[in-house]
Prior knowledge:
Two copies of one chain form a homodimer. Chain A is of the alpha/beta class. Chain A has two domains: 82 residues, Arc Repressor Mutant, subunit A (Orthogonal Bundle), CATH 1.10.10; 179 residues, Rossmann fold (3-Layer(aba) Sandwich). Chain A has twelve helices and five strands. Chain A has a five-stranded parallel beta sheet, with helices on both faces. In chain A, helix 2 packs across helix 3, helix 3 crosses helix 4 and helix 7 packs across helix 11. At the A-B interface, helix 2, helix 5, helix 6, helix 8 and helix 11 of A face helix 5, helix 6, helix 8 and helix 11 of B. Chain A binds a DNA duplex through helix 2 and helix 4.
Amino acid sequence: xxxxxxxxxxxxxxxxxxxxxxxxxxxxxxxxxxxxxxxxxxxxxxxxxxxxxxxxxxxxxxxxxxxxxxxxxxxxxxxxxxxxxxxxxxxxxxxxxxxxxxxxxxxxxxxxxxxxxxxxxxxxxxxxxxxxxxxxxxxxxxxxxxxxxxxxxxxxxxxxxxxxxxxxxxxxxxxxxxxxxxxxxxxxxxxxxxxxxxxxxxxxxxxxxxxxxxxxxxxxxxxxxxxxxxxxxxxxxxxxxxxxxxxxxxxxxxxxxxxxxxxxxxxxxxxxxxxxxxxxxxxx
Amino acid sequence: xxxxxxxxxxxxxxxxxxxxxxxxxxxxxxxxxxxxxxxxxxxxxxxxxxxxxxxxxxxxxxxxxxxxxxxxxxxxxxxxxxxxxxxxxxxxxxxxxxxxxxxxxxxxxxxxxxxxxxxxxxxxxxxxxxxxxxxxxxxxxxxxxxxxxxxxxxxxxxxxxxxxxxxxxxxxxxxxxxxxxxxxxxxxxxxxxxxxxxxxxxxxxxxxxxxxxxxxxxxxxxxxxxxxxxxxxxxxxxxxxxxxxxxxxxxxxxxxxxxxxxxxxxxxxxxxxxxxxxxxxxxx
DNA sequence: AGGACTCTGAAACAATAATTTCAAAAATTG
DNA sequence: CAATTTTTGAAATTATTGTTTCAGAGTCCT
Lengths: 284, 284
C-alpha cells in the first residue's frame, strides 16, 4: 500500500525548495493536525504564499491541496481509531528498546535533573562574570572534554575579546598562568576520570585570585574546592561513556545569556567578522 | 478551558431536532475526525442538508460551522500533541521565561523533530558502516563544527583503529584524500553557512568511491548531493547561534551503537588504553 | 559580472464552501 | 381534521478557498 504523507515529505525533502521546506516543517511539526486548516491559514503559518502550498501538494503527487488534506484526514482517522499510544516513543518508527530511544530517555533525564539542581541565580552570576569584559577568560578541558572547551571558546570568541583556549598539552599551561591577573576567569572542564593536571592548575591560579568556573559531573571533581562557581551536570548514558549533551546544553544557554548581556558589543563584532569572511572569499 | 464539543452535543441532545440528531450521531461516531470535512460532505454523510448543519452549529453556541470546526481541531491538537512538548518548566526555580527554560524547550523540540525525521534503518546502516573495521574512517568539520568532529574522533578512536581527524586547514586535505581507498568513510559536518571547501572535498573523495556520511541541518548542506548517508538535524535555538546539542546527541548515540556492534574489540582496546594511562602516571 | 535558470508571491480567476431566504413538508395542537 | 407551529431542504446569495498566470526576485553557473 501507499506511504503516509509524512513518509512522502521526508522522501522528497531534498528535492523541495526553500518555501516548500518551510511548509514541510510546519506540516511535520504538529503532524497531521497542522495540515487540517484551510490553505490560506497553512500558508500564513509557514510564511509562504498559497500558490506554494498548491505547488508542493502537486509535487508530492496529489492533484491539489484538498487531495492532500483528504489523505491527511484518512491517516488521522486510522491513527485515532487505533488506540496505541504512539507518543511515548521518541522515534516513532523505532522500537522503544532501540538505542535512539533509550539514549533520548537518558538525556532528558539528565537534563531535567541537572536543571533541577542548578539555582538560576548561580547561572546568572556566571553569565554576568563572563559578560564582564574587563576580565580575561581562559578555558581549559581534559582529554574528553577538550572538544567542549573548544566549542565554548569558538563561541565566546565571537561575543567578546580576551578569550584564550589553553592547549591540550599541560606543559605550556604555566606560560598562560603567568599572564593571568586577579579577577580573570578560568573555565575548567573536569569530568570523571578527573585529571591531576587540572587540579594542579586550579590550585596554581587560585593563588593569583583568578576565579574558577567549573563544569563537572554529579559527583564533583576535586577541582571544586578551588572553584568559585560550579555546574554539576548529570552525565549518565546507556553506553561505556558519559554523555556530554547536557554539558553542551549549558554552554549554549550560557553563551546565549552572555550574548544578551553585551549585545551591543557582540553585534558589532559579528558584523566585523562577516566582513572579514567576505574579504577572505575574495582572495581565492 | 470549557467543555469539549462532544460534551456540548451530549448536553443538548434532548433539545435537538430529528435532522440535528442524525448529525450529532455522525459527529460523535468517529469523533472528532468526522467533523473535519467540508460542510457539504458532512451533510451528505448524515443525509441532511447543509443548512441543518449550520443551524446546529449555531444552536450549540458557535457562530457557524467553521467556528465549530476550529473548536474540534483545537481539541484534536491537544489530544494528539506530544506530552513532552508541554513540559511547563524545566528548572522549577526559574521563571519559564528564563533563558534556561526557553533553551530547554527549544532543544527538546529539536530532538523530537530530528528523531521523527530519522528512519532508524538509516541510523543502523551508518552504525554498521562505522563498525566495519575494514573501512578507514576520516572525519572533518567546519569552523563551528570542528569541535564536534573532534569529539567524535576522540570517541571512535577508542572504539576501533584507523580513525583520522582531518585538520582545520583545508590546504592539507589533499594529502589525506591521497590515502583514501574505495569503501572508506568520510564523516562531514556541514551546518548552515555551508563551507565551499567541504563541497570541493566531498566531490573529490566521491570520485574515489569513498562513502560520505553527512551531518547537516534541516535545510541540508549542498554536500548532500554527494553523500550516501545524511542526518538532517534541527538546530534552532533562542540565540544568535544554532544549537549543536542534538547533533552531539546523535554522535553519542551512534558511538554507543558502534560500541555494541564491536564490543569485543572495543573492550580490549579500552583495557589497553587504561594500562597505558597507568604507565604514564608512573613516569612522573 | 552577466546571462540562464529556478523559485516565489501578488493578483486575477475559478471552484467550492457556508449562509440566508423562503416555500413546502412534517409535526403538533385544539 | 384543519389551523398553527416547527422543521426542513432547494435554491439563491455571499464568503472563502483553491488554482493559474505572470512578472520580478533570487540563485546558479560560467
